[in-house]
Amino acid sequence: MNLSADDKKAEAMVNPEKLDIQTGELRDLDAAEVFLRENNFSSEYVQELLSDEAGNKRLVRRVDLILLPLLCVTFLLQYIDKQALSYAAVFDLFTDANITQDQYALFPSMFYIAYLVAEYPWSYLAQKTLMAKVTSGCVICWGAVLMATAACNNYAGLAACRFLLGIFEAPITPCFTMIVGMWYTRDQQPFRTGLIYSCNGLGSMIGGVLSYAIGQIQTFPVWKAIFLLCGGLTTLWGLVLLVYLPDSIIVAKRFTLEEKATLIGRGKLGRTGILNQSIKLYQIKEAVLDPQVWLLTLFVLLNEMINGGVANFGKLIIKGLVHDSLRATALGIPMGAFQILWILSGTYMASRFRNVRTLVMAGYLIPTLIGTSLMWKLDRSSMKIGVLFGYYICGAFVASLATAMQMPATNLGGYTKRMTATAIVFGAYCVGNIVGPHFFLGREAPTYPTGCKVIIGCSVAQMFVALSLRMLLSRRNKKRDAEAAAANAIEDPAVDELSADKTDFENPKFRYVF
């Protein structure tokens, strides 16, 4: 007789006495493990759910259709909104708001100082409460701040708005990194992260088209129209996010109990943990003392020193070639297409092939080296196409960033440790973007030789950091394999293990991906 799904579940149900958990033990369990126990899902039944390959593929497609559009559109709007200032700078921002180019160079620093200050408090709040509600509320607030920017007519007003924008954008990328880590397996995370980060490139293209179209307006200041349109769209999208983005697998409304159990089982395969709202001080200490975290932090710092310059001065580099605002905006659009190509190809390889992530991180810096050299050394009057091509390919470093940014969620066990490490790495993201623009000196426009030298130096240094990280993680895996072999340890399926919110240092069965 064929058993129904409910009958199979009942047959594989754990014994009631095994569910008698002491209060202290329950508090140490991953929230996903508590969910499985409260709903009487045994490891055998979860393993049976995972063995249904066709069902798992359908479930992942459903997660993709529900989750990725929400994350991708948010990231797209975040990029356009962050770049709205550089689009406005191409038009009449400097004259209407009475600011100088040196004052303009300070705006990115103000944004990322606020980002740096607000990031960990937001991350703490997101872990302790409802992650999706925190991020949605911040999206609504940053849209409102962006619209308010259109009312500014001096340096002080613009500076205040940039600072507030940094505060409200701070939790988005760290929280999205944790969301991807919660819903997808370690093999699937890089490409999904790549899809989200590729929206930076799409945002660059759409933002360029929008600003080009808005640039045709003759009856209203173009730079103000850019801020009003971008801010209004973001505020409306924040309301959509508030309604539809789930806070976690456990409370997601559009999935059945069996589907949630399957997603939790998939998450357990990497032994990183899924969700725990208890802040554990020893995990914070472990994150701070882990060399892996600091290698990633250094990598991201160097990467974002490049980004801080290219993102804020790229449009001005092009404007130095054509001396026309609308043409400069149009010529910047292909940069977005190249970014999509770099990010999707790099993160696809990181997902498709085993242990090539650090090689992707290093290898995708080569086009950045070549492109920067072209921008720096080619004659700008006779070889404009070569300079433009150099500008387009120098953005390959974003593929390295997208791969590196998912590493804390992929390679660290313990929810508090992952959240802390993510915050540290994103702190470096902020510092790099604060420092980077200051190497692009106004008196050196439009070639910015000092900025080009810094980009080249940072790219080479990142290659060494990526390879050092590879050696560290490989050595850790070999040591654990040797210890397991010496102890004749039997490898149990990850699904059978109790998810007790252990860190990667505490769990000898944890293996790193690199």
Characterize the structure shown:
Helix content is 73%, strand content 0%. It has a single domain, classed as MFS general substrate transporter like domains (Growth Hormone, Chain: A), CATH 1.20.1250. By secondary structure, the protein is mainly alpha-helical. The protein starts with a helix and ends in a 28-residue tail after the last helix. The protein has 24 helices and no strands. Helix 4 crosses helix 13, helix 17 packs across helix 21 (397-405) and helix 19 packs antiparallel against helix 24.
Distance between the termini: 47 Å
How many strands, what sense, and barrel or not for the largest sheet? none
Going by helix content, strand content and strand pairing, the class is: mainly alpha
CATH class: Mainly Alpha
Shape: globular
The number of distinct structural domains comes to 1
Strand content range? under 5%
SS summary, helix count: 24
Q: Based on the coordinates given, report the CATH architecture.
A: Up-down Bundle
The helix content is over 70%
CATH homologous superfamily designation: MFS general substrate transporter like domains
Tell me the radius of gyration. 24 Å
Query: What's the total count of β strands?
Result: 0
| Low-confidence regions | 1-26
What name is given to the CATH topology? Growth Hormone, Chain: A
> What's the quaternary structure here?
single chain
Reading the helices and strands in chain order gives HHHHHHHHHHHHHHHHHHHHHHHH
| Overall average pLDDT | 84
